[in-house]
Design goal:
single chain; mainly alpha; 0% strand
């Protein structure tokens, strides 16, 4: 299970790499690297979904991508940060944590149910 979460981390990281590439690419070989990063990203995403709930993987992937992209915009591309962005990023983090916590009891319930049968 721990290895699957490493795949979630890798897919989230590679998503940030290719999104960064979209902002700085200006020649054909930059785009070739971006396409390779996207392929690698989706490989890790599919590996993560093999043993983890797809909804949780995607929510984590999308949440990390959204927050990471927003932070990249602020710190690298001199975007603006305001309280509203901070509040919504916080809500997004709470949602991802909530989904992760909500998935765990259902797995334990299924295991207990199977053991009693």
């Amino acid at each position: 299970m721990k290895k699957d979460w490493i795949y979630v981390g890798l897919t989230s990281l590679f998503e940030l790499f290719w999104i960064f590439g979209f902002n700085v690419a200006d020649s054909w070989w930059h785009w070739a690297i971006i396409v390779a990063l996207i392929a690698l990203d989706f490989h890790f995403l599919s590996k993560a979904c093999e043993n983890l709930p797809t909804g949780t993987v995607y929510a984590t992937f999308a949440g990390v991508g959204t927050i990471g992209t927003t932070l990249m915009d602020i710190f690298i591309f001199e975007g603006e940060f305001n309280a509203i962005k901070g509040i919504f990023m916080f809500i997004l983090v709470l949602g991802v944590i909530g989904l992760n916590l909500a998935d765990n009891p259902s797995k334990n319930h299924v295991k207990e149910k199977g053991a009693n049968a």
